[in-house]
Predict the structure.
Amino acid sequence: MTLLLTHYNYLVVVVLMMAGFFIVIAQGNLVKKLVGLNIFQTSVFILYISSGKITGGTAPILQDGITAYSNPLPHVLILTAIVVGIATTALGLALVIRIKKAYGTIEESEIQQRDHTC
Amino acid sequence: MLSHLPILQVILPLLGAPACLILGRGKLAWLFALLVSTLSFCIAATLLYTVYHHGVISYALGGWQAPWGIEYRIDLLNAWLLVIVSGSSTISLLAAQSSISTEITLDKQGLFYVAWLLCLAGLLGILATGDAFNVFVFLEISSLSTYTLISLGPNRQSLWAAFRYLIMGTIGATFILIGIGFMYIMTGTLNMADLAERLPSASESPTVFAAYAFILVGISLKLALFPLHLWLPNAYSQAPSIVTTFLAASATKVALYLLIRFTYTIFPSEFSQFIIPLADIFVALGIVAVFSASIAAIYQEEIKRAIAYSSIAQIGYMVIGLGIGGVLGLQAALIHVFNHALMKATLFMALAGIAVRIGATTLTSMQGLGRKMPWTSFGFVAGGLSLIGVPLTAGFISKWYLVSAAALAGRWPLVFLILLGSLLAIIYIWRVVEALYFKSAADNSPVKEAPLTMLIALWLLILGNVYFGIDTRLPVSISYEAATALVEGRP
Amino acid sequence: MLSGIYGFLSASFFVLMDAVDVAFTEAAVGSGISPLLMLLTVALVGRHEKQNPGRGLPALVLVTITGALLIIGTLSMPDFGSANAPAQTHVGPYYIEQSAAEIGIPNIVTSVLASYRGFDTFGEVAVVFTAGIGVLSLLMLKSSTPETPAVTSAHKHKILRIVSKILIPPILLFSLYVQFHGDYGPGGGFQAGVIFAAAIILYTMFFGVDIAQQVVSSALLRVLAAFGVLLYGSVGLVSMLNGGTFLDYSALADNPITGQHIGIIVIELGVGMTVAAVMVMIFYCFAGQVNTAREADE
């Protein structure tokens, strides 16, 4: 039980990650796949940020009279990762638009069908 | 300036890319990209020479010492890979302009070269860095540009292939990110050398085990290791031909480098030996990859696709080398990385030449080409012989070292299986040779030889295959030194 | 819509954990750009959806294995919020203790981002640039398409036009504030670039892509996107010529602290430039697709 209390943040991470990952694999709709991928990535962001938090600490901006700051390094890493995430999403969506134009559908099963018939 | 070589290696193509965008389209962009790539090949060669004679080079970016700043760390292993990647980029770029002229519209050609340089910079960045998170950043640069390059392929299937690769690749990269996060949480550092120092004290912890597992799976996705290889045949067969030549010779090699780096340098050695039976897993997966992919290759009608499957099989051989382990096994894998780059580049280059002239690379469309395009067709034969492992070709050296590593480890069934795998390669190469030389074409209209730049590139590769099949001093000595350093855990 | 809320939620989550800079970015990206692009895509590809059964089970198995591995991984981690965790005792504290003396700005995140790990940020800019190149190559409109007559909705809606005129200048100002205030509070080049792009995107939504392109043309955007990366890189090159290593800002001026200041301001400018240009470029590409699709329908 204490484990649940001290690790609740990580549990959120695990649930979000599993949900996102499931959507990516199980969904046939390409846009939804990308939404799932987004959720999957966000869960990793929370994992990193959680690791930087110190109880009683404040945001890592130096001020007089404050001694405990949260660890800035994970924040920096995740800033980078968020940007990478949106870059991937944008490229993926652009691909979806082109696929819709070329195939007339964005359902995985239908695309595979159309590739095999011609 | 000489001390800045490690960083110049990466920022040259990285800054070359935006400059290339401003420069414009078509021929000018091509010449510029070729120049940048050639220069970075020269830098890589100099680095290799320096490291071989004077030892490891460390370069502190931003003037901050590791582990607070990001460090570039060049040892023999990554110097060797830097030469392979920049070399295959240069030789593919030489042929690129003629090849893409038929596959990509003029207004996108400028963007094509920009994406190419970004991809090159990403791959070189992964190799050069000594920082685990920096690996992720450059992995994404190379991945996003690779998706772009693939999507520029001539058919609509290329879009679908790029999308699937994007999903798989992003999952792989996110897995690696999770693994790096776990390692960071347990050690508080991101620098590879620092991680190697601090991980052993935490190696009992399941978190480190999970970190290793996530990183392994993530890299295997990028490496297209069986059973995570499903994206590769589509991506390779649908990409523009010359992109396939470049990627086949470089991208999976970089993933293999990461596998070696994480297994040998970063994670404690007793960890990968005792906690998970990693060596056995590698050998088993490698064997399955060799056989399933070789058999799949035999049944392909589209030859680019068949050779793509063959790549999965060859990755299997490299992973078997890792699984055998020790200096010899590792050395065999490292020699094969180099030789495989040579032979795959040759094969795909020949196919690219054929695609330029007849617009397809199916088995039936290639019938009778041996007489119409003798110089190009011979390229395929030479690459094929090397792939099979015929003496006096580079491929023979690979097989020789792999087989002797297995034999010295006393694993005779493995020796047998490796040789059997080569027999399968004979079958899928022979099918093409038969079509090229022993079948007559449906129509007898003459076909021109591949464009000159492509022929030059192709024949340079053929000469490379033969040269390194005879004079093996360079790859053998470097891979030996690199493997010894890794196994002994020298920094 | 839901994903927008999700973006906001995760942003507030980050604030709770003291990651104000991250929260700022996630708010801009997660509830701004990413839903916007998603909506545009859905507008293009339609909502039509099909149930395809059969994938659920293997997916569930895979996800369960991954989840189990994750739980194994997280169980033995240090407690959440613990001050004795390795991550809090090894490299992190160095930044907190030394950055005031070595860099001289209060926002530690900016110090680490722009200087200690400046090369990661350079890579990040390159990723944005790569995505821009990718989207451009996928969705670039053929230059031969005839110019559409510039009659768009905004000309009919006077209110919208006035509202936009009131809204856009403050947004642009705010983005400049964020750009240069990043040293002291949360903010920096990336966030500023996104906000700046938001202003132009707003303008585009009111007046149409064609008119917006007359103000900020695609060719200009390309040059700006490339120039931002080059600017960042050239800071590194200059510090190399001054005898430091790549991106060693201390070599930029006689006084290392001044050098750090100059370096950080210039590279943040490069980041902002590339990010703003690429975001607008991506938006143009998506919006241009919507326009051509609409014309095809009519």
Summary: Chain B has a mean pLDDT of 88. Residues 277-491 of chain B form one domain.
